[in-house]
Amino acid sequence: MIAHSLRLKPPKLSKIRAIAFMSHALLENYGPRELVLSHGAGSHVYCEAGRKYLDFAMGIAVNSLGHCHPRLVEALTGQARQLWHVSNLFRIPAAERLAEKLTKLCFADRAFFCNSGAEAVECGFKMMRRYHFANGDPERKRIIALTQAFHGRTLATIAAAANPVHCEGFLDGDSGFDQVEFGSAEALQAAISGRTAGVIVEPVQGEGGIRPADPGYLGEVRELCRQHGILLMFDEVQCGAGRSGAFYAHQRLGVEPDLLASAKGLGGGFPVGVCLSRESVARPMTAGSHGSTFGGNPLAMSVADAVVSEICTEGFLQQVRSNGERLIGELRALQEAWPRSITEVSGLGLMIGVFLRVDAGEFLARLRREGLLAVKGGNNSIRLLPPLNVEREEIDEALAVLRRVLHEINHP
Ligand SMILES: Cc1ncc(COP(=O)(O)O)c(C=O)c1O
To answer: Are residues 193 and 253 in the same domain?
Structure first.
């Protein structure tokens, strides 16, 4: 009866739009936002008013293959017609296939699927503790994280990164995490104690302003973990799944972890996360030790499988590397031309940070007015996160906008 009356009275589109614009029903945690994007294709999105934007924000490094990639649309709709969700009470062949694929691509032997980056990181934190517990060292519970890190917004992940803004009103006192300076092996060595379970590192820091870790430093971190019998986890939620120009960023930096969190770009826009680990770390995660209702669902698995296949096609990652190098090179030329505006350009592959002397928020607003979307980063930077399959001409288009805005700022 209800369904029948709903069918008889479909809601008016104009009414839905009006509610979307005026609603006070959402939590205000994201602050005010203006732009409503209505559809997208490839590297471009369109707002409701019809304006076209070149999207170098890509849902904050999520839409790795751009908007509505035909192969992903096909994977999603094909699976949607067949089976959406069954729960982990049943075997899910698509999850088994994707786990095989991902573990073959890197150091890992096992995969646990979840729905977001923070969940993947949390799973890794639990696995670090459980590993020592199972090996007769239950006191090893503390986890070391690095300054300027970001690992998500759950209680454990904000405790790890210890950003005071993110912790205010949620946490105080000791939550079982220690922080040491990013880039200092000496600081890490001094912080490791008999209660340390492991260390979490973003091989390329993202939210704090894009900064690739020095390979030498990462090697020292790896060696310290080995010497102390503690675990090394990489958070590749933002820099993973091809963004760096390798499938995982640590593969470009030459250092392997014991665990790895991956999400964002892995689903190309569909929510999915994974915690990958070595067999020895996975072994204590016996039946009942962890779980997720939605983790590994057929829809997410089908889309992620298509994303991984696309990223692994011959020449794809080479293209990410060469496009990244060109874009970084051109941005460094802009820095030389406009040193009063740009202080530094850093990045790996197509994960690029531009550190500014002018206000980053104002700079982003100017880019948007000129039709280019990018994302704010820490330390007064902006992040350029184009789709991994961005066209050369689209990079030129973005550079032209940046040149115009820099000229405008310097010749008011
Ligand atoms: C490095 C890193 N880790 C973890 C997260 C959290 O991911 P999610 O927002 O999917 O929980 C993010 C999100 O920006 C991230 O950049």
So the answer is: yes
Residues 374/382, Cβ–Cβ less than 8 Å: yes
377 in contact with ligand 1, CB cutoff 6 A = no
Measured distance CA(204)–CA(100) in Å, rounded: 25
CA of 337 to the centre of ligand 1 (A): 34
CA of 118 to the centre of ligand 1 (A): 6
Hey, which residues does 348 pair with through a beta bridge? 351
Residue 30 tokens, joined: 């994201």
Q: What's residue 32's pLDDT?
A: 87
* CATH number of the domain residue 266 falls in: 3.40.640.10
Residue nearest to atom 8 of ligand 1 (CA): 117
For residues 293 and 348, membership in a common domain is answered with no
Q: Which of 96, 348, 149, 118 is nearest to 242 (CA)?
A: 348
Q: Which residues form the domain of 396?
A: 314-352+364-382+390-400
Q: What's the Cα-to-Cα distance from 15 to each of 7, 10, 21, 46, rounded to whole Å?
A: 17, 11, 10, 21
| Residue 215 included in any domain | yes
- Is 122 a pocket residue for ligand 1 (Cβ < 6 Å)? no
Residue 7 lies in a domain: no
Place 21 in a pLDDT band, splitting at 50, 70 and 90.
Answer: low
List, for residues 157-171, the tens digit of each pLDDT value: 999 999 999 999 999
The residue type of 52 is K
Number of domains comprising the chain: 2
Q: What is the Cα gyration radius of the chain? A: 22
In sequence order, the β-bridge partners of residue 354 are 345, 382
Are residues 302 and 344 located together in one domain of the fold?
no
